[in-house]
Amino acid sequence: MKQYEYLAKGALREHGIPIPPGRLVNSPEDAYEAVEAIGPAALKAQVLVGGRGKAGGIRFANTPEEARETAKAMLGMDLKGYTVERLYAEGKLDIEREFYISVTTDRNKKVPLVMASLAGGVEIEDVDDSQIVRQWVDPRVGVLPYFGRELAQRLGLEGVLAREFADLVVKLYQIYREKDAELVEINPLAVVDGHLVAADARLNVDDSALFRHKNLELIDEGSEIEQKVHKIGLAFVELDGDIAIMANGAGMAMATVDAIQYFGGKPANFLDAGGGASVEPTAQALDVLVSMNPKVIFVNIFGGITRCDDVAKAILQVKNTTGIPVPLVVRLVGTNEKEGVRLLEEAGISAYSDMAPAAERAVELAGEGRS
């Protein structure tokens, strides 16, 4: 789960990492008061996307009046598909140099990884590999002061900057561990008046660890449709096609997307209904697919923990309440398959037992397919 910049900056501040003075802005008057208090500031759109500056999501204001007018223009604007609802007013910095520093998880080595570079201020993917210093962490030991000193030395830092950098690495790793983070990043890590200041920050918390962070501000990511499905507790990604998909299990959902594309169709989404999802959340998810106004809905279930009769009941619940106004293709096989098929057939809905012909039929009904 990604955190907005102002929340990531709050975590840095709690651990003693220097950040510029800043205030959350919810209205033009908030922006006026913020700049009145902290002086010339950058107004930063609080959206969970990169490249805000190039997209017009970071603007500067030297006076309270200018801040008010800038906030009026920014609040409510569309930024890469997201509506800007909040800004973060942050003191303007006179930056001398920009570095990069992050702590993440190396999934191949299965240990934490600290990455640093003297080339900050740009996406790390755009930095030449030769300019990036990587240092892996032994989780049994953690990051002690010597670790930060070694990293600073490898970067060629000296004096005050080397000492501050070494201390910052230790604190950044503490945040990584305490927050169960997937990523803690400062980019750029700015040099201002000869000292290090976190000019921007990212904090991504592992979704699986949220139960340990009850006070963490939950953030709904993605489109309105994605948010609806996530609230049900299912995995969903919106795509740009017109054949809506529901399958059980991430592997099955990906295979379904591949099958639709193989036969020349365009998937509208990835939806993993999970193993063992009961009737109600399955029906709610199907309702969401209906609301997407696709050309076809393709339900692909291989029942293990998931019961085919529960899926059938969910389909019938939606059909008998809100209705399913587009063609529906169902593939149903596995646990309680006979009962599920019987329920559907009584309602005039046929079910396939094999995925390939079902996927091909969904593509045909969408008027697509190979030419």
SSE topology:
Elements: E1 2-3, H1 5-14, E2 22-25, H2 28-38, E3 41-45, E4 58-61, H3 64-74, E5 78-79, E6 82-83, E7 87-91, E8 97-106, E9 111-117, E10 132-136, H4 145-155, H5 159-178, E11 181-192, E12 195-198, E13 201-205, H6 224-232, E14 235-238, E15 243-247, H7 250-262, E16 269-272, H8 279-291, E17 296-303, H9 308-320, E18 328-334, H10 337-346, E19 351-352, H11 355-365
Parallel strand pairs: 15-17, 17-18, 18-19
Antiparallel strand pairs: 1-13, 2-7, 3-4, 3-7, 5-6, 8-9, 8-11, 9-10, 11-12, 11-13, 14-16
Helix pairs in contact: 2-3, 4-5, 6-8, 8-9, 9-10
Structural description of this entry:
By secondary structure, this protein is α+β, with helices and mostly antiparallel strands. It has three domains: 21-91, Dna Ligase, domain 1 (2-Layer Sandwich), CATH 3.30.1490; 97-212, D-amino Acid Aminotransferase, Chain A, domain 1 (2-Layer Sandwich); 224-365, Rossmann fold (3-Layer(aba) Sandwich), CATH 3.40.50.261. Helix content is 36%, strand content 26%. It has helices at residues 5-14, 28-38, 64-74, 145-155, 159-178, 224-232, 250-262, 279-291, 308-320, 337-346, 355-365; strands at residues 2-3, 22-25, 41-45, 58-61, 78-79, 82-83, 87-91, 97-106, 111-117, 132-136, 181-192, 195-198, 201-205, 235-238, 243-247, 269-272, 296-303, 328-334, 351-352. The strands form five sheets. Strands 1, 8, 9, 10, 11, 12 and 13 form a seven-stranded antiparallel beta sheet that branches. Helix 2 packs antiparallel against helix 3 (64-74), helix 8 crosses helix 9 (308-320) and helix 9 packs parallel to helix 10 (337-346). The longest helix is centred in the middle third of the chain and has 20 residues, at 159-178. The chain is elongated. The relative contact order is 0.09. The mean pLDDT is 90.
